[in-house]
Amino acid sequence: MENVDLESVKSFVDTLWVIDCAILVFIMQAGFMCMETGLSRHKNSINVALKNAADFGLAVVIFWLFGFGLMFGKSFNGYFGTDLFFFKTDQAEYMTYFVFQAMFVATAATIVSGAVAERMKFNGYLIITIIATGIIYPIVGHWAWSSSYLNNIDATRQLLAVTGQVKTTGWLTDIGFVDFAGSTIVHSVGGWIALSAVLILGPRIGKYSDANKGKFTGSSFPLAVLGTLILWFGWFGFNGGSNGAMDEAVPLILINTFLAASFGLLTGLGISFALFKKPDPYYVIIGPLAGLVAITAGCNSMTSVTSIFVGIIGAVVAIFVNEFLNKLEIDDVVGAVPVHLAAGVWGTIAVGLFSDLEILGTGLTRLEQIKVQFIGIVSIGVFSFFGSYILLKILNYIYPLRVSPLHEELGLNIAEHNATSVEHDLITILEKQSESGDLTIRGPQDPFTAGGVIGLYYNRLMSKLETSEAEKKVWRDRISNEVKLAVKVQENFLPKRNLENYPVHGINIAAREVSGDFFSFYPHNDSVYFIIADVAGKGIHAGMVMAKASTLFEIMSRDQVDPDEMMFHMNNDLFLTKTGGMFVTSILGEYNMRTDELRWVNGGHQPAIIRSSSGNYEQFESNSPPMGVILQKDKSVYKTHKVKLENNRFYAFTDGLSESLNSSGEEIGIDGSLKIIEQNFNTDSSKQLSDISNTVIDTAGDNKLSDDLTLISIGK
To answer: Closest by alpha carbon to 416, among 142, 46, 678, 674?
Structure first.
């Protein structure tokens, strides 16, 4: 049996481990795509998929051409590499290293995609990918990670490094900065670039309108959660592969990764329940991803308990920053800035706070390590944000990065790629049909797609509706005729007598065909009995109750019943009639022209108004219950107001006046009602109420009357 070369076996296992981890990181690209697609609207789904495919391929090419060299080449004073361009080697371990690092650079680029979704030109996004992968990421990567490759290239370079002729480390490595798997180098860098891009682009159209209140509904939360789980799965390769070998450190790295994500998820759930009393899908997505980003920097150097704490705080930080950005109206579709930038910053600080200093091997004290971590975060943040912001600002001036408002509303699937889907075609048909009312329009149908199946059943439904339309028309005509008849019947209940010898006037404008308001006057020698009432409801049912109340009023007016007794009997009669829960508010009274005395009872109605000859207004609030609510045993519950009119004028109106809207959509209220009355006071008393109602309608502008409008006036 031949002797086994243990070093060769270990080298093989290590190489295989890194390759497997690289494959896991590649799978994360599918996770990003699923999550972004699920959190974006359907009209942009194809654009999302193409971006996530294109940025990966482009990132790898750029990294091969010069990105790898800038990151891992011979260092220029610790700031950037100067060789290894057009990467080429015949050594398996270095080819493996390139493949693994290419996965990382693609991840940094893809982080930006989700933040700028739904409003950025495809070509503009590709340019951002070039800037991120060809300039920003490799340079900051050189500052902290260059030694991971350079110290192991070959014997010649090792010798030169020892003699000091070749610098193999970036300046952040020299001062002791540690970011094991890229909380800052990968994730915060992607987050900084994403932040600069969304600030330049601005929010999506309508994102922060009053109607949306900062939220757009994504196309599929299940798909977004699936993307989160795929990212979680791939993260084991992200962190585990960063170890560079399959050794005793890997199990701790993996369990810390697992625990931070799990407790991040539970934190998101907990905050969601605390705020909304239910699990919010968006928080369930943010929580574990923030935990994963946060633990990435120190997953090899922390205890399991510490990783739990890091994951919890990471989720809290991400959720807080997400809400803060929304308050600032900074539109980040997938939460890239809160998750990758904010949680990444926290995770990098946590390295100094909680990591085992012996494992870090920097030779720094804990306080010194914390200081160095801050230096790394700030320097990388300043370079990444301002570098990308300046470049994108210049680019946006030359070549606008945002699509036109028309294209944004249309959706990037069509606007950017001329690509459509059965679902989109169906939505277009539905919109066209809703606008036109044409039941003959048919949608696309396909038994092999979800949208096509919906279209199939929708077309069947439309066919049935179209077939029955003639029958529906018959019913509509019948109902219309019955409503017209009800209107004519109701008109007969309103005063038709010539009351020219009495200083009383009234007007009724129905919000619907049949009004639930009414007024009536009944003259008797020197007196005139009056009522204004509002049935609690609208339509034909309210009209029938109104007819009943109007009839009762006329019967008792003939018998010259006092107002309190009249309301007492009308109340009990309406209650016993079983009006279906409807009640009637009213002002009912008598005006004696000989004595100039006005008596009335206000049963739950709007206040009665008396306008004095000097121009002052006095309000008389309701002092009695509405009619029809409960059976009354004694008329004493109805209190009578008594005044001498003395050249003053009495007004009563329904809430159709006080609750009418002005041009701004606000109710005019009692004060607004009085202003309108005063505005028309000097007109002839016989047409004054018509002028008042016209003023109300003009004041409302495009706001139609929502309730019946009825007014009466008494006095010269």
So the answer is: 46
Which tokens hold the place of 157? 């370079």
Bin 628: left if φ > 0, else alpha if -120 < ψ < 50, else beta. Answer: left
The four Cα atoms 160, 163, 164, 169 give a dihedral, to 10 degrees, of 60
In this structure, which amino acid lies at residue 573?
D
Helices (H), 492-562: 539-558
- Residues of the chain under the 50 pLDDT cut: 1, 151-160, 162-163, 165, 496-498
The three-state secondary structure class of 43 is helix
Please choose, from the candidates 341, 251, 253, 242, the residue with its C-alpha nearest in 3D space to the C-alpha of residue 289.
Answer: 341
Buried b (16+ CB within 10 A) or exposed e, 672-693: bbbebbeebbeeeeeebbbbbb
Class of domain 13-407: mainly alpha
CB-CB contact of 78 with 169 (8 Å): yes
Q: Which residues pair with 534 in a beta bridge?
A: 517, 585
**Cβ pair 48, 36 in contact under 8 A:** yes
Contact 19, 97 (CB under 8 A): no
Tell me the C-alpha distance between 342 and 320, whole Å.
Answer: 10
pLDDT value at residue 451: 58
Which of 336, 338, 251, 260 is CA-nearest to residue 297? 260
Q: How far apart are CA 212 and CA 195, in angstroms?
A: 22
pLDDT (tens digit, 9 = 90+) per residue, 300-309? 999 999 999 9
* pLDDT value, residue 461: 72
* Per-chain mean pLDDT for the chain: 85
Domain 497-714: which CATH number of 3.30.830.10, 3.90.1200.10, 3.40.50.11540, 3.60.40.10:
3.60.40.10
pLDDT digits (tens, 9 = 90+) for 437-490: 676 666 666 665 555 666 666 677 777 776 666 666 666 666 555 555 555 555
Give the separation between CA 674 and CA 672, rounded to whole angstroms.
Answer: 5
Three-state DSSP at 598 gives strand
pLDDT value, residue 473: 63
Amino acid letter, 547: A
Return the half-sphere exposure (C-beta side, CA atoms, 13 A cut-off) of residue 289: 31
Residue 152 to residue 575: CA distance in whole angstroms: 96
CB 553 within 8 A of CB 530: no
